[in-house]
């Protein structure tokens, strides 16, 4: 059921193509940057995002700042890293792929026996051509990630190792934030982690969808205020939560956007509340989308919804992705690259995110102003003329369902659930009934 | 599980045969009458019903009377209608079948080109031998319904058209009403639409079942007061609701009876409340019946339950039918005739409606007067003598379930649901326990 | 998932073997005794149990004592019983098998025609080699149970009959009771019927499991007080309930143990409350056990849970068995013998009963003391070091689930239900979090 576009089909397809290419272009530009929890990679990334969303605020939070039960870590930056053989050749080279370095590796320089080096190597015997992505944020360590094939070629007795990184206790954690005010102060939170280096689906895809969604929302009238938070995983949302108690109190709905560029079907993971409005909206939008999807129950493992849904906050924040983490072969490897994420997949994800926001915007509770018997729709031009046939059009049913359930205790999403009718159709029907003086939003 | 009859099986079969024939005879007598929303066809129908139910009240409500959001329409009557060819032969003739005229056709007389006439013709290309049933109650129009084959034979350039109808603004809407007082003022509403012309299943079948059910109820002691309303679809129930606010407040359960003569299995459509006592009673009676059936959720489309279940009233009124409207090929065509409705089908529907009323009558909440441990049934003659075997008869289980759940918060229908035992069996067991001083109705 | 044992696997297997043999030895010792509702067989049985549980109290309640709606019956004892043919040979002999006598047979002595005798014989035509078990506790009668083959050999015209029994109105009903005090006065009730004669599974198996369970519980620290009641079916629990109103008020959970020695899978029958803590604990322990099992809804037929769950008491008492009564061929026949009940089956049942008690002991409601965001587990040594991989160990998930759901409204069993994780694992994780100062029991 088409929902938001008023363009004729060929023009819409052309626009989608253009969007997809524009989205992928942004993703390709961000891909080579070596992001981490902190550091210049995040700053560079957010600077590029500001070209798309000029109002984006970039916050710097000093290392050592307490944040809930945590503390902002030292800032990590890396200039170069390599392992050289006796001949002085780089047999592992950070410049070739930034996944080669264990994230947050401490600086190291020296000769190591192969046995010593092996304890600092990470590879995937089952996927011997791929470089894994590994981190050691909170436990000081150094290491290299490499393909298993490359690892097996390391046959010399000693290697020279260099990791030219810095861990700066007087550095900062960087995150981006953009607020689009709406008619109401009530907020919809959109959150993406931006701490992963050259991984296209995880999570440049979520970031790119969020950026284009905010551009689109900026062009529309908004009932809700929308807030985008782009920060490093876990510590980013913890820092944001610790610094924004008032905004936390205004969040009515929220969505973590991640893994939105791959080829798989969609997955919505429910918030801890399981039946919050965000959960119903997401399930309905997916139901109406015609795409393959799955709704999964809450799990206290995953992305930043873990923090938003911790019991003290218990915010209604779900998580929208395509195939979830760990369930596709490319996950956290060098195969999560620019060809794994396709423009059409990004556009489809963007449309779904737009429909999700549209469903929240549309979700009002109406009161039927003529609740005794059915109002006579015919004389208001809302009913077909010749009766007795079996047309039973969705439009007629949308009118009847809205009138029947608008007793002040069913909102539009609940009407969509009970009737099986699309949210967008019901929204149009509700507006027609409102215009006819038969419904009134509470 | 047999419930209400105490006759031995052959006598019961004979009585059923006689009932079926009597029911079908009434249906056959009513079939040729041209009923509509208003007019003499309804009056003639109700006059025949009064031969069966002499206490039936016939109400006349003047055209133009406001009723909730509606207004009683002008009274429509028709004497004749035809389309003649150049040779003066009737090529469409109301006297051959009263479905030939679009219901509520405005009067018309004159010559029309074939193209002009075509805009006023209704046929069914997919069922080329059947005349469809069509109405235009609230949008002035005229028209003829005919078989597609007949339509294809209209090859002349011009036809003479006559519809000798009247739309009388000073006429009336006619409906029938019968109240059978019971021990309580609380009411069970039974409602049938009686506005369709020569259609046997829709809804002479419902009317005939209701008439014989009221005859049967009149012969029995009644806990509830039963009210039958026979009126035109939609406007009839709206008029009744608008004129009877006090009776509306006394309705505890209600059932729309329709499409009860065809060969299909039974369908119970839940009231808007979904879990009202009427919904549980109907589901249990169907479960216990041994027939094919389906329970469907509430839908704000269908028959007069749409009005009874509008949110302002929200009455617990379900709808009992066999195959629902639009789901059998004969629906709203000339094939819905006297051979489509068979006596045995009418009798089976009547039995089910009787069992439904019996379930409502039987549904009390009991208090176990010996609730600490099981009472010793043996010394009260309610338990088998030699133990250790595996008889586990339903009767014993009925006693145990009633004793166990009669804590004042389970009524008999809930015991039937939880135990899987029949309503009639539990009713007999409850009376045995009441006689033994172990149960007391609240 | 191993729960309670800390022994290495081979030692555990050896201990299990020893337990099974010890359990079966007790069962074999009790098997030949002719127990009934009352009488010396019960006394002898309880005297042997006291060798295992020296603190067991043996109560004698005089015949004629009122108990709820019942009265303690006359005490029944039997010395001998036989049917002799004309040659004076015992063709049915109580000394060969105590099932041969209808329980509670009144004394009889004399010659009977075969037709007269036949009215007092019970056999199983479908299982012609087995002796059935039959009773006539509350309706005076006498009779013999015998294999159908044996019955068919009775071809003489007259037989001499002797049942040398006594029904003593000044006798008593005997039951056993053992209380193991815990930290709290709140009680867990364990109940077994001990009224059946030589039937091994029904219910010496339950009794033996209960005896060994109480021995095990006696060796452990206990949060709850545990009470074991060993009495005759129905009247035993009724007598106990009538005499212990204060203890009744302290029962928080209860389990009837029966039919625990056969080869079938486990069956848990829910209490009348259906979702009581006992019901959740039993379902989870079965789910975690890796064995075949079934959870069945409440039914007011079965064992002493009928009395505990009568509506006046409505205690949260379920019933744990293997294949339920009446669903295995050996039920209530001479085939329910010492070879039907195997040591390994008894041990498996004992383990399950122990895990059930452990689940109740473990079930606390915790409060997360660091509920805003996730607490940083890493610095408390509760989290793995190198991230990015997909280990997702159950231990980590147990920590996360407990932290996430410990908002004061989920107890540990509910966390086990929602997470799918084992009760024992969650219990260990909860203690680790408590030690780390992150959780506190309410």
UniProtKB/TrEMBL annotation, chains A, B, C:
InterPro entries in the record: DUF2172, DUF4910, UCP015244, UCP01524_HTH, WH-like_DNA-bd_sf
All copies of domain DUF2172, residue ranges: 75-166
Domain DUF4910 span(s) in chain numbering: 24-363
Residues annotated as binding Zn(2+): 196, 202, 332
Keyword Metal-binding among UniProt keywords: yes
Secretion signal, residue range per the UniProt entry: none
Pfam entry (one): DUF2172
Domain named UCP01524 winged helix-turn-helix: residues: 364-440
Keywords from the named record: Aminopeptidase, Hydrolase, Metal-binding, Protease, Zinc
Cofactor binding annotation: Binds 1 zinc ion per subunit.
Molecular functions per Gene Ontology: aminopeptidase activity; metal ion binding
Cofactor(s) required for function per UniProt: Zn(2+)
Annotated transmembrane regions: none
Protein name per the record: Aminopeptidase-like protein
Source species: Hymenobacter luteus
């Amino acid at each position: 059921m088409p929902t938001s576009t008023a363009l004729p089909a060929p023009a819409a397809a052309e626009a989608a193509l253009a969007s997809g290419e524009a989205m992928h272009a942004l993703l390709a530009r961000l891909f080579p940057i070596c992001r981490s929890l902190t550091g210049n990679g995040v700053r560079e990334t957010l600077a590029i995002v500001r070209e798309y969303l000029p109002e984006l605020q970039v916050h710097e939070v000093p290392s050592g700042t307490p944040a809930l039960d945590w503390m902002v870590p030292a800032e990590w930056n890396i200039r170069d890293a390599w392992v050289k053989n006796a001949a002085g050749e780089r047999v592992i080279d950070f410049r070739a792929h930034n996944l080669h370095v264990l994230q947050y590796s401490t600086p190291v320089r020296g000769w190591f026996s192969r046995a010593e080096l092996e304890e600092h190597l990470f590879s995937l015997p089952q996927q011997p051509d791929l470089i894994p992505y590994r981190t050691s944020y909170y436990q000081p360590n150094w290491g290299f990630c490499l393909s298993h094939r490359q690892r097996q070629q390391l046959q010399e007795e000693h290697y020279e190792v260099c990791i030219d990184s810095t861990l700066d206790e007087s550095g900062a954690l960087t995150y981006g934030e953009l607020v689009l005010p709406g008619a109401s102060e009530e907020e919809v939170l959109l959150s993406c982690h931006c701490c992963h280096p050259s991984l296209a689906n995880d999570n440049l895809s979520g970031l790119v969808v969020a950026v284009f969604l905010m551009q689109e929302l900026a062009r529309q009238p908004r009932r809700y205020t929308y807030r985008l938070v782009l920060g490093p995983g876990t510590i980013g949302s913890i820092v944001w939560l610790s610094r924004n108690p008032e905004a936390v109190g205004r969040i009515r709905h929220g969505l973590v956007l991640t893994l939105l560029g791959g080829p798989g079907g969609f997955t919505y993971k429910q918030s801890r509340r399981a039946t919050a409005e965000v959960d119903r909206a997401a399930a309905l939008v997916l139901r109406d989308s015609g795409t393959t999807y799955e709704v999964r129950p809450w799990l206290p493992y995953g992305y930043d919804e873990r923090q938003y849904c911790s019991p003290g906050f218990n915010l209604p924040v779900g998580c929208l992705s395509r195939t979830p983490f760990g369930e596709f072969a490319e996950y956290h490897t060098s195969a999560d690259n620019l060809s794994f994420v396709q423009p059409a997949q990004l556009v489809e994800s963007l449309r779904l995110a737009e429909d999700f926001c549209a469903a929240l915007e549309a979700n009002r509770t109406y009161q039927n102003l003529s609740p005794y018997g059915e109002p006579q729709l015919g004389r208001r031009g809302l009913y077909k003329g010749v009766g007795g046939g079996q047309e039973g059009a969705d439009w007629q049913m949308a009118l009847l369902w809205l009138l029947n359930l608008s007793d002040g205790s069913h909102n539009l999403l609940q009407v969509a659930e009970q009737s099986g009718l699309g949210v967008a159709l019901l929204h149009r029907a509700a507006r027609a009934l409102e215009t006819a003086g038969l419904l009134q939003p509470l």
